[in-house]
Amino acid sequence: MRADIQVGATFPDYDLPDHTGVKRRLSFLQGRDPMILMLGRGVYCPKDRQQLMELVRFSAQCDVGFTRIVTITTDNLILSNDLRLGVGAHWPFLHDPERIIQQDLGIQEYTDPHNNPMIPYTFVLEPGLRIFKLYNGYWYWGRPSTAELHQDLRDITRRIRPDYQIDTPEMRAKWDRGEKEDFYPYGQSMRQVFIRMAGAVAQFDDPEAGER
User: Fold this and answer.
1) What are phi and psi of 33, to 5 degrees?
2) Measured between alpha carbons, how far is 69 from 160 in angstroms, rounded to an integer?
3) CB neighbours (10 Å) of residue 107?
4) Where are the bilayer-spanning segments (predicted)?
5) N or C end of the chain: smaller count of CB under 10 Å?
6) What is the chain's percent helix, strand, coil content, to nearest 5?
7) Phi and psi at residue 146, in whole multiples of 5°?
8) pLDDT tens per residue across span 148-199
9) pTM, whole model, 2 decimals?
10) Are the C-beta atoms of residues 19 and 81 closer than 8 Å to each other?
11) Residues 116, 99: contact at Cβ < 8 Å?
12) Other CB atoms closer than 10 Å to residue 202's CB: what's the count?
């Protein structure tokens, strides 16, 4: 792994085609929310499928917890969709058959020259693609359990949501004064909140451009 990819650093804002063939930037998919980013081997790997099936079960909690999930593999468009549909995932799958990420991050799994995958990593990202935690999943037990992800996301949410504890006199006073900027959705439209909860990527607004 490249030396600068560590906790506290900003993960590169890669721009790759999704499962519909449309190029998407990671920052666009993340928006203003935490994100679980899974870099996988691909459709042939049973460890990836097992992790994805656990994430499918966990994803309902991510939806109501305002957390995004993205998976990236070195599969092509067809195989990426085979994997996504096969495990029942509803979040974006980006594909990188040219191995841009593998080469840029220095994570070639050199022990498998036949498939030439990435070493599977899972990143938990704060808003702004800031790395909160990373897990090396070369061995399956190196991958995060859903309990670990729950704890990571609790810690992130406590840090980034000013209304994490609304039962303080200060927060109640702000609400009573009509100062709603520190309360979810922090001035965003509920339309976009629900679009992101539904995973309707084609309708996402660019978080840097404001609502169109």
Assistant:
1) -110, 165
2) 18
3) 21
4) none
5) C
6) 40, 15, 45
7) -65, -25
8) 999 999 999 999 999 999 999 999 999 999 988 999 888 888 888 888 887 7
9) 0.90
10) yes
11) yes
12) 8
Is there a contact between 16 and 37 (Cβ–Cβ < 8 Å)? no
Q: Describe the crossing of helices 77-87 and 46-64 by its angle, rounded to 10 degrees.
A: 60
Sequence-separated (6 or more) residues with CB below 8 Å from residue 208:
27
Comparing CA positions, the residue from 71, 79, 192 lying closest to residue 123 is 71
Tokens of 106: 């220095």
What structural domains does the chain harbor?
A: 15-160 (3.40.30.10), 166-212 (no CATH)
As a whole number of angstroms, the distance between CA 4 and CA 146 comes to 26
Residues 6 or more apart whose CB falls under 8 angstroms from that of 13 comprise 25, 26, 27, 129
The two three-digit tokens of residue 136, written as one number: 């090396």
* pLDDT tens-digit readout, 76-134: 999 999 999 999 999 999 999 999 999 999 999 999 999 999 999 999 999 999 999 99
Pairing of strands 68-73, 35-39: parallel
Q: Say which amino acid occupies 49.
A: R
